[in-house]
Amino acid sequence: MAENGWYAAIIIATLAAMTDMPRQSTGSKLRRNFGRIGIYVIVFILGAIGEPLVQRAYAALTSAVGDGPLVVVSQKWPDFSCSPASFGVLPGGPDPMSTTYASGAKAVRTVGVPFRAGQLDLRLSAKDPKPLYIYKIEIATFAQKPDVSPAWVGLLEAGGCGDAQHREFTADLDKPASITDDGIVGDGDPDPDAPQAKLGADFTIKDDDPAHIFVNIKACTGYFEFGLKIHYNYLGGDFETTIGSAAKPFTMVGSAVSVPSYGYQDEKSAPHPSDAIGGCASPGAATSSAGPTSVTPASQDNGLFPAEFAGNWSGTLFQSNGKSWSLTVRIDARTSVAYVQYPAPLNCTANWYVVTAASALLSAREKVLSGTCSATGVVYMAITPLRQLLLTYAPDDGKYTATATLTRS
Questions:
Q1: For the chain, what is the total number of helices (H) and then of strands (E)?
Q2: Which pTM was predicted?
Q3: How close are the terminal C-alpha atoms of the chain, in Å?
Q4: Among the four given CATH numbers 2.40.50, 2.40.128, 2.60.40, 1.10.10, the one describing domain 286-408
Q5: Which of 38, 124, 141, 356 is deepest in the core (most CB within 10 A)?
């Protein structure tokens, strides 16, 4: 469309040449030449102004019918290439203990639904060398069943990919209007296609300047079918592109009650029962019946760690955005502070300050003392029948949630 103005100018020039009449006299020849020069000037002006006018008309027309130049080069959902994957198998699916590693892992990936967290990997480009800009990203919910929970959860191992710098957004399906722009995250090598600008006029994409983004999706309870809607502007016209559809949606499931889980670690081992995954609840409701149902009640002594929590604990913290980190915790009985370390690559230290220990869940406030981890947050913990420390964590900035099952040395 960029050359349509010049096409119009060429047509006008051709018509002008076709109207050249036989010469009558020197005077008429002179007048004719001046007239022809005037036509060429008009042709040049039309060529200059015709191009943007045609482009604006194109933008207005295609915007009205929903077509636009944004290209989805690739999409990967769910992307668990760098962290362990959790899939919820809905009622009516296979019995986990009747499967081998190979058949179980296949069943989990083909029948299972991403459980509570997943990551959408998107590469975007454009059809045109002229830039478009993205100004809004939101969740498009096609179906929601709040009472559906998985029968069991399959846990699959995955290799690590380091922590390369990349562009992230976070969306909560329970609060679909709450998409946040996390900016550039990670401390490793930068992704050359990761946009640096905030959403808006500076968040531009062209055919030779693509964008690579990740959207962390999380859900607390229920079953969701959803997509991602991208709003952008091209040559003054507003467009929408929806990734996923009601016919082929992305899916995710959470649970308000505890769910049995089974691990699939290697091809030589059978699936093995793991710890039940506690029910999901908002931090303000974490001591309600929606919390973990198979735990040892803490002693009725607010403000101090009970004796059953004492020890040196270690394990892995799994975040809802797909990341995972090692941590160690030292808890002394009848003290109000626990000492936490997040080893390399985080290299953070923190304290947990007891808030209450008057129910099945003990709650504490985390304050990071060194490093670049989330500065503050809320920790809920309980002792399982296997004498492990089950905990959930929510940073105050709300960018993710995390869970861990720690063992005592």
A1: 3, 23
A2: 0.57
A3: 69
A4: 2.40.128
A5: 124
